[in-house]
Amino acid sequence: MEMKAGRKYIVTKASDSQEFLVGDHFVFDRSGAITCIEAQGWMEKQYVPDAIKGMEFVLDKQWAIARREKLIKELQDLEQGE
Fold first, then answer.
1. For residue 60, what is the enclosing H or E element?
2. pTM to 2 decimals?
3. How far apart are CA 11 and CA 56, in angstroms?
4. How many structural domains comprise the chain?
């Protein structure tokens, strides 16, 4: 799976370096950096390729559902002129 900016993912297989562990939640941003919620920090773009080697991840479905609901609400508000 390719990471897309602004989406939240969950690690399903730890990275070879153990920088990212199973269950970690992270966001890949437009600059190429990664923010990890559990680590309460971020990693600059130049360190990401080595840090994610061997890592597997999936889209955080709970985040995706909540995001979708928020967007639908915003569209409904726009249609009602609010």
1. none
2. 0.84
3. 6
4. 1
Return the SS3 of 76: helix
Q: What is the pLDDT along the chain (82 residues), one digit of tens a residue?
A: 789 999 999 999 999 999 999 999 999 999 999 999 998 999 999 999 999 999 999 999 999 999 999 999 999 988 887 6
Q: What are the two backbone dihedrals, phi and then psi, of residue 50, each rounded to the nearest 5 degrees?
A: -70, -35
Largest CA distance in the chain: 51
* Containing structural domain, residue 56: 8-79
The single-letter code of the amino acid at 52 is I
35 within a domain of the structure (yes/no): yes
Please identify which residue in the block is written with the tokens 């990275």: 15
Q: Edge-to-edge strand order for the sheet containing 34-36?
A: 41-43, 34-36, 25-28, 8-13, 56-59
**Would residue 3 count as lying in a domain?**
no
Residue 1 lies in a domain: no
Q: Is residue 2 domain-resident?
A: no
